[in-house]
Protein 1
Amino acid sequence: MRRIALLSVLGISLMLNACKDRPQSRATAEDVAARVNGVEITLSEVDRLIEQQLRAGAQQGQAPPTPAELAAVRLQVLEGLITQQALYQRAERLGLLPTEDEILQGIQQFKRERGLSEEGFQRTLRELGQTEEQFRREIRRQLAIQKLFDREVTPRITVTDREIEDFYKANKAQFVERRGFALARILVTPGRDNVPDDAVGAEAAERKIREIYEQLRRGADFATVAARRSEDPLTATRGGEWGFFPETSEQFPEALRARLSAMREGDITEPIRIGNAWLIIKLVRRIQRDRELTLDEVRAQIVEELRGQREQVLQTAVTRLALAESRIENMLAQRMLENPANFGGLRPIALPAPSASGQSR
């Protein structure tokens, strides 16, 4: 796809609708895109997933897809839903469905990770055109699939000391701490981020970042303020911890690199505007020279890398088995093949016009 990103088979967002858990016959024949052991997946469900991706792209100024691109994306998204349903049914057969308490915990975790209040959560559901019950079903499905992988994959993954040492020796060049900066940040944007204390609009964003700066100047703890007021949920949950950046990183303008080079550990910048976002950056630690890391320092990182590689392979194996034991009917693909001139008569998806000023942050 040259204009829109394709969804991965297993990476469909929890925030979006997926197929129903049980066979049902309310959908018209034209709307049934596929069946997995009799459970229907509708074209409407496929299109709801795609709409979220395309609307996000339109806000960033991306052109809408051509009919051929849209048809290809529909097939790929449908493949992901088929895979989800096959894995869910395998988990169900093995008695791995989550309890009501686990579903509730999953919903609360979803809110915490995104910094959503109950009001923000309900607003998110409305923006997605999704009911709370539909969201619960999707959480249920994802937890069941995770339980399946936990049972069939996780116990089979082992990493030996010899493998760790061999990986370290073969990849020594990547285990070097470069000169650079360990940074934390507080981020404020004018867009709607569905976080507490959300600043919406350019004036509100600038006002908020300057209020935060004054808090910090008066001695407020950076990590505490970041956790409460930053509009980047990922770094906010870590007290603003952003990561390590080499001294030569081109991610920052030259003036900012020079500013960081002149700072002492613990110093913060004044509010900085990059694109449509405002940041306050803290220099947590400065690395003065390149240093080769020891095996003990990177052992945990190597174990995580090796386990991740094996987990991916074994999850793929479980997925292939789940698909192989399922009776799958892909009516969407069949209709496209029978009528290639207009890809099976697919209806268009109504989307907003691309934003001329949209920018990703």
Note: Residues 295-324 form the longest helix (30 residues).
Protein 2
Amino acid sequence: MNRFAVLSIFAVSTVFASDHQLKPVRIAVPVDGHIHPAACVTRSGTIVVTYGRVNHVDLRITRSSDGGMTWSEPVPFVHTVEKTYYPGSLTTLSDGRLVHCWNRWDTPVTQKEPRSVLYSLSSDDGETWSDPQPFPRDPEVRSVTRHPVTELASGKWLVSLIDRTWVFDPVTSKATPFGDGRDHGLIPIVQTPRGTFVSGAGLRSTDNGQTWKTIDGFPDISTQGWRHEMVVLKNGWLLASEILGPGFGGERIRYRISHDDGQTWDAVFEYYNPGRAINGRACPRTVQLDDKTIGVVFYDIDKDQEGGPGVFFLRIPIAKLEP
């Protein structure tokens, strides 16, 4: 029987999820390929998740209105039906709209078409979506995104792409380099409540990206940066999911935590340890549900687990992340 082990902060002791009601809820059954979920929470509290059901040809969307306890039947995402895609990201904007970014993949007709990023907006908690719009692209470069956009005070979006790091203006559809113009790669970049920017490349900036300082002891989320994550909670804490262990998808997943605006990352909380290989890259994505709770969506494609391969959602009390 699978066990979901959870380690306390600083790994002082080991307890099991059943002791703390930390048990993942199965929300979908994937079939094959790049499952890579994305997640966001709407103003009304609805959780929206997308994931790849079948490699590059069946992107699904599902929603929960009760904090992740139950989920709607996953349905195809309307703008990828009969089109090839690679999963992207979900973001909730300050005005309540949702942004879904995904990647246009090569199609059977135009195998040499460069990969590029599209986005669509929803004003009704992910029920309907606007016509897709493209980010500016270099016709000779394959561009990909996997991480939520960071909405800046100006209303522009900081977008982390595999080939460039942009500030995109959704009003004019124009993009400019961020900060000092460096390419951070396909990694998350977040802004804390203090205005500090923290890059998944292990860098920290307090002057809007004009200069960067290397963070000592920063977790390795840049290697295979498309599967790792970094998020900021409302209280200013930063979480980075690490996937540890050998093999294709490791054996356990934990948060590395910063309680001091991204300067140090000593605290640790392990939230998934089935006692075997996870079999799949997991690609966790964390969202804050309320002032006391976060939720993380991930996948585990071990065929011998109860119910077979699955996409799961796990609720975690924020109190368990305290220093």
Note: The longest strand covers residues 47-54.
Protein 3
Amino acid sequence: MAAKQYIWLNGKFTDFGNAKVHILTHSLQYGSGIFEGIRAYQSGSRAAVFRLGDHVKRFINTAKIYSMDLGYSEKELTDAIIGLIRKNRLQQCYIRPFAYYDDTRIGLSTEGKKISVAIAAIPFGNYFQNKGKGISCKISSWKRINSEILPPHAKASGNYRNSILASQEAKASGADEAIMLTTNGYVAEGPGENIFFARDGKLMTPPASSDILMGITRDTIIKIAEEKGFIVEEREMHREELYIADELFFTGTAAELTPIVKVDGKKIGSGKTGPVTKLLSDALTELVTGKDTAFHDWVTLV
């Protein structure tokens, strides 16, 4: 991290160490914050922010679902992110917009409570330590939340308690990550990742109806795969289909494209990163760093 780093907080650049909240802050007590995750990759001497507009729109949509008035327009948030990357002099980073109820009064009600908006931009590497060799997963006993419980299409802090329980269970069993099922028993996603299944030359991924977050990296991989001639199906998947897949992988802003080589102790395909996974991973890398201009409007150079 550079010697001097800043957080954008309510329209101002604040020293990284001074961006603090009170212990009784509503969103700390009740998990009522919302957030977004964005990556910027080094492209020459500049930072290339991937699908910045789509991420900002999803952040605003999450706020709308939870009836939060952010007080900032899409352009103002976009400009704040670009300004923060420049201020922190970063060429690659993870960007975390976050909105929260900045109020210390006890009680669930959000009425009349101030909403603060913060943006952090910090250096960030691989999310999974074993990403290069592929990771192992365990199908969780914890089911994925659905729209009758909490809106899974929103990136809200409280939603991720569900994810944390699943991830803790997986790691306690010796796996790297969990795979979560819907309450109907279909494959949903990882705790913070979408999942793809390759078999017989086709690529499959669970649909919106499987209680998934509609991932931006997921959408990217679908479009890359289709451009390369793959048939991509969005359909419900049974857990046993994972065991007989030729290849499995996770996608996500943090996870990028991470191969899954074992599920519930069963080797997936060859037990190594497969050719489809490698092809799509390499294509994603070319795209996010601005080397592939097929989707040039997805990259914002700073």
Note: Helices lie at 26-30, 52-65, 74-88, 160-172, 216-227, 239-243, 275-288.
Protein 4
Amino acid sequence: METRSLGESDVQITPILIGTWQAGKRMWVGIEDEESIKAIRAAYDAGITTVDTAEVYGEGHSEQVVAKALADVRDRVVYASKVFANHLKYDQVIEACDRSLTNLKTDYIDLYQIHWPSGSFNSEVVPVEETMNALNKLKEQGKIRAIGVSNFSRTQLEEAAQYGRIDSLQPPYSLFWRQLETDAMPYCVANNISILAYSSLAQGLLTGKFGPDHQFAEGDHRAKNKLFQPENYQRVQKALEQLRPIAKSHNCTLAQLSLAWLIAQPQTNAIAGARNAEQASDNAKAASVNLSSEELQEIDRIGKQVTNHLDNNPVMWNW
């Protein structure tokens, strides 16, 4: 798979990344470590060399699973991890990074990101300058190679960028969730900041596997996702029906079509999770789906039938 530069850093990422929130198990159901390891390894075997994780995914468990899957090929993969909103004081950032290094069994993290802005989830408010000072120190020490932020608005991104080079923004972004396009995307394009889109398949909606009457298991966080609420869900089903013929014409799945559309957007790369090896391999194939400008415009139009009815709140869940 071709690689792209991460912002202005010397880190090279694949346009499709494997996401490992589910590997942490917390807030998911039916996840087994063995299957997560197989999925991560299958992604690597299919050409995806960039993996995204975070300290908060199962309190380090996801990072440990990533290490089990990829430790023997560490020099050929890119690790992206994140420090959570409750660890943004200077010393806490340093300590969190050291924990992640231990979990990942590595002496450097290629991309280290602020997971949520300070104050999120009732965390203590810490000036972004203090957090950035710690990240800059880690970069000087060679413990991290690039700095990124996640779930930041354009305003928050601009503020953080005053205190050091930001090479990536990780927002929720998919064909069915597009607030980014009118907020931070123009700034990212102007400043060569890579976009690493999470929930790139709208938490599985864009796979087409959820029928009109789907019910989630107890404890599955997707039950609170705004896109799964009844009125939005009906629009989603209608849009999927319109996307199916385009996918069929490319002999690809709805998921592959959606990922191909996403990585064709400015500065954008797609993080896709996988429960098993087959899903991981399938996601990788999206990088070879070539869409014409007319098809990109048509897919764009179909997606807006869903997103035009959503409010401007960038948080995807009713938590």
Note: The chain has one domain: 4-204+254-290.
